[in-house]
Amino acid sequence: MFCWNEETKQAQQAVLTRPAVTASEDIAVRCKAILADVKANGDSALIAMAKKFDNRETPRLVVPVNEINQAEQALSTELKYAIDTAYANVKRFHQAQRPKDIKLSTQPGVLCELKYQAIEAVGIYVPGGSAPLPSSVIMQGVLAQLSGAATVVLATPVQGDASINPAILYAAKLCGITTIIESGGAGAIAAMAYGTESVPKVNKIFGPGNSFVTMAKQLVAQTIPGMAIDMPAGPSEVLVIADERANPEFIAADLLSQAEHGADSQVILLSNCERIIARTEQALTTQLANLSRRDTATKALANSTLILVDSITQAFTVSAEYGPEHLILQLADANPYLDQVKNAGSVFVGDYTPESAGDYASGTNHVLPTYGYSATYSSLNLLDFFRTYTVQTISKNGLRELSKAILPLAAAEGLDAHANAVSIRLEAINNER
Amino acid sequence: MFCWNEETKQAQQAVLTRPAVTASEDIAVRCKAILADVKANGDSALIAMAKKFDNRETPRLVVPVNEINQAEQALSTELKYAIDTAYANVKRFHQAQRPKDIKLSTQPGVLCELKYQAIEAVGIYVPGGSAPLPSSVIMQGVLAQLSGAATVVLATPVQGDASINPAILYAAKLCGITTIIESGGAGAIAAMAYGTESVPKVNKIFGPGNSFVTMAKQLVAQTIPGMAIDMPAGPSEVLVIADERANPEFIAADLLSQAEHGADSQVILLSNCERIIARTEQALTTQLANLSRRDTATKALANSTLILVDSITQAFTVSAEYGPEHLILQLADANPYLDQVKNAGSVFVGDYTPESAGDYASGTNHVLPTYGYSATYSSLNLLDFFRTYTVQTISKNGLRELSKAILPLAAAEGLDAHANAVSIRLEAINNER
Lengths: 433, 433
Fold this sequence. Notes:
2 copies of one chain form a homodimer. By secondary structure, chain A is an alpha/beta fold.
């Protein structure tokens, strides 16, 4: 237990400092080689990588549409219901985020518009690993579908000659995705960024991944003009604020559901009650013993701290300084504090709102800024699949009046040609009379 | 003149290819040294740089507020009116972009919210150079003001012991900016990113600049967790689409108003009429002779092309492929084509809507994605000064029902602790009965 008020400012800062994440120079070099290979050799580079890294023999890169359509037959009723419900809730919440164009005259004859345009081609990466991640398909695929993007590509690795898990395929089908690429890692990112014979080139790449995926996303965003990525990646985090009447078993379960994500996950508890902290520590030990991923969770707990604060108000100050990806409020009444929430990716209010609800099915997005980026970056939302541009239409009279603002500014900034583009039009208007 | 349909696909691509912009390794090395210096030595590093690079003797870094407040006394009536009008129009257009929170139940007992939070501390960089750029203050400062950011810092270089131009100070005053730092280049970016004794640390840095400023912005965004920048930088561009009844003098004036920005600016004309192209070429020569910045404009014209297309529809296809920062439509009736606009930063419709209107005063923002980034990035808008986060509040009954979606997904993804965080609560609910 770390007693906030008894520690120095330095110790306070240290306890909130995240473990440094520095990609090795080696990963950058290897990613650059993979990018160059895929750019030059397209599909054949992807097939060679599938053989080498994923132990595959089949040269297949694209999942046939009938496999996507038939996947649901392999799902249990319960899992199908779960995917359907998660899809519906995520769709409902993100549909409400649909942007509206703006149109107004700033002064007579000067019409200004802000318009939204769906990003034309988007790529979604879904990591492989020990288990399939259908939730990752839903959290990104629904938004692509709602945006109306013309091209949506999903890429995910396959280990050996296994096919892609039907839960992934069914989630993709619900999202209307018909282009699924059996390819992973930096190669898959390169394929979507440059395009290959089988993989359409996209404009923006979404999705989490290992250090190769993260590095490849950064490299394509830095080197290909017009290419964008979703947000900076980092290890997952949760911060729980709990008062004296919170349930330590619930707190421990929430901390562990974050800790099992990865050894680099960080979990923090802030409470104004020493007893709650002590009991949470006990509950962590008990619950940990029964987890299949207890080794991972144990490592993550080593980066993590239970902190005693003076007051719940102080807890919100500390949380704002840390800027957690997930913020769980197990408080008798969180309402008076909600306005004090700052720099959080997603907030879970009350004893019966575990993080796993948002991870899977409540409707909010589970792609969230982490590693301190919640000070500036948004949780993934529908606007991430759109861009805005402006349109202006000015009448002759509008320009005559507006010239009184343009000409002195152009003169002050020493830009003759800017002034001339207006003056030459004013002359034409005067000559018409 | 380049006849689109008579050229190979390769030649077509070549004519739309932007000149490569690669920052030299030398600039990266020098920027890193400046960043480290400012991080370690704060104000004294900035003062040393002001003496070295800006030829200054005075150690002053911060403009006293009374200087900001009194600046308008030095302005001509015309310039004050121009700044007031530009400020009012930009404010009117961006105020309409104010975001609204969203709150809805995705299913009974599952309340989801999307909330907007102003980015707390923002930095605005305004480049120095041969003339002051009050428009750059307005285009960024109004948005910071409308967002309600708690801290707004403006940094701009001063050459020698001259004070900052009163047009800059007055524009800043209108935008409610009280912290103005007399510092430029990578040092100013570092000061806002790390904070110094005089300069508040910010979370997001906006604004154009030279290759040092651009490199410093990239470096702080890559290395400081939570730090963000506005958008990738690149040379300025305009693409004009003109039909057979367009005015070649207007076209030439618009091309030149872009060309005078810098030697690396790119200007393109697409027309379906050979005569218009020939006359525009003549008008360019005539108008160029009278410009104070004709050397710059001449260099820019060397990167630029007048292209004959088959039809106006083809012009829009070519424009979408190029993705211009500014798109000017000098068409008899642009309306039927407006839905074909893709990948443009800002669009100027009709013969009497020159780019300089949007650069200064129509109300739209002049900070726009360039260098192909208009496929994915937005024109600067009010949301760039906000972030979104989500909040969910789930009732006991809500969680019981939602668990049917969460538990099978957690099982499918092999995440026990995620399931446990739900099951442990369901048990508690059942035990209450």
